[in-house]
Every structure is written in C-alpha cells, then in structure tokens.
Amino acid sequence: MAAVEVHKFAQCITCHAWSRDRSMLAFCPNNNEVHIYALLQGKWEKLHVLQKHDQIVSGIDWSARSNKIVTASHDRNSYVWNLEGSEWVPTLVILRLNRAALCVKWSPRENKFAVGSGAKTVCICYYEQENNWWVSKLIRKRHDSSVTSVAWHPNNILLATASTDGKCRIFSTFIKVVDAKESRTGPSADSKFGEQILQLDLSFTWSFGVRWSPSGNTLAYVGHNSMIYFVDDVGPSPLAQNVAFRDLPLRDVLFLSERLVIGVGFDCNPMVFAADERGIWSFIKFLGERKTTSSGPKYGSQFSEAFGKLYGQPKQGFNNDTNEHSRSRGGVHENCINCIVPLGAPGSSKVKRFSTSGLDGKIVVWDMENQEDLAEYL
Asked: Average pLDDT in the 323-334 region?
C-alpha cells in the first residue's frame, strides 16, 4: 500500500486543505464549521473552529502565498479568512447566488478565486483595493445544471468547469483590473471575461472532478458513467480520448505528472491512470488494492456485483460452474473518497505525495516515492 498516514478526524469529511508548509490542516466535518488542526510534538491538535457559515461547507482552499483560507457553503456564501494575530478573521464575499455554492479554488497567482454553484453559475472573485472588499463577476447562462468542480489553468486566465449537465467547459476569466495583458496567451489571447473557449460533450452523465496537467497541455475530468476523459491541445482542434473501467465512478482527479493521474471516488480506493510514450491513457492499478483470489474468467456485470453486495451475497457469474469473488471495495478508506489534494510544492511539475478525504471521516496521506512500477511515469 502507498498510504503512509491515516488520521480519523470525524464521522464524515466533506473537503479539506493544507497550509503551505503542511503543518496545519483545515477540513469540514460535514457541518457548517471548519476545523483547523496543527501537528504539535508529533500529535494533531485542534487549534481553531471557524464558525460563520449557516450550512454545510462544501469547499475549502488554502492559499500558499498569502496564507488566506477561502470557504464556500450551501448557504450561498463565501468567506475569505485572514490570520490576524492568533485569530482567523472572516471577510464576506457577496456571490449573488440563489443556490448553494459547491466548490471553490484559488487561481495560481492567488489574485482571484472561482466558486461553482448549483445556480448554473460560476463566480470569479477578486479583491478591490479601493473599497477594501472582495467582489465577484458572474459567468452566467453557460451551464445547464450545477457546476460541480472548477480548475484553473497555469496561465491564471483559463478556467475549466465540470457540470451535472454532462459537459466540461473552458472559459476566459480575464479581468482588466487584475490580470496583465501579457498573461493572455494561446486560446485566451483575445478573449473577454466569460467567453467560452471550448465545450466538451464527451460525457452523457454527470461530470465531477476536473483538473489541468502541470503544464496546462492536458485536461482530465470524470463522469458518473465510470469513465475518465483526457483532452490534449485544448483549442479549436482538441484531441480527446476516454478510458472506461468496470469499477464504480470517480468523484475527483489529480495529475501527479504529465503522464500520471490519480482518480478517487465511490470505489473508496485511489485509481492510477497513466499515458504511454504515444500518449495513450489506460488504467494501471488501485493504490491500496487488496489481493484476492479469483477462479475462472470474469463474468457478470458491475450491476450484478453491486446487487449481490447489497444482499450480502458474492457476485454470481452467468456460468453456474464459475463463481468469482468480488474485489474488496476500499482498503484504507471505508467510504466514498470525495476530495484529493496535492502535497508537492505549489506549481510543481511532479507531485509524489497527496492526501485524500472521504465520507468515512479519514484523511489519508499517500506517498508515491516507493512505487517502483510507476517511476517511469513520474
């Protein structure tokens, strides 16, 4: 197994984020609070409880440069938290939403952050120095359903979104008072704020996690149909491919390098995908897979496996003479993994450590350093 640290902090965790030096951890224990823990003398201790939201906190991101925490909640609000002395002081961000805020991410330069919502809207928020507050500009009438995930391109301008309408979209977020003209390169060179650069219709089901590769040349996102999609050369003529797998759908995705991706979701176990020398992506293995014995060929379907598990029965093949025991779900995690966060240096082209959190209340740190079979992809 690649897991090096396993911490049980709550009954359920909706999202988490780390400070720059990884000495402090912020997470939401499936309520309206954010708990901040610090590693003191080898033991995790609770230092702060951020209480300002009225409903479940659905997104947290901790900026590496400015040490600010941004939170988003089902109460339709977002707060930017600043550490003043020994206290975290919140600043309300007016999002102008009529539905829940579902996700939030700082931009690479940390001069903006994006909030996806159930109002079919994306809010791009930035700090207005003159009035000493955070304001938002909205990307409206582009999505047909909830925006479940957002991801910033390394150029700080392009933003990718995943939505439950099954589509992945890429927008320009160029704001004159915030962004420098020279930052507009490639597909976003002449684009205006909110302009849609590309719409990907690869999935026919809900789309969830979306992420750019470290160089920004590849985009990956996942669908609720147990498929992961990879898109190269984002622009007028993108190159797309998909990888289908028999296991349960993914919820989030992370690039460890240009050729290695980790997907997490309902299988409770991180899945590894890699690209060969030709750029063809494929599923490699589960990180925490338990070895199980299997006799005969694989028969049956994912539905029959789930149906059998529901009633406490092993998966039955179509051949009465051959029974295959289902691969044990999970390993370190015991419930759906809904969040994955890199632990490498911000902007690094290679990430060898990352953390996951899930509905089992655990936060697990994974180390890829000793994964010799994956060394060529890292």
From this structure: 60
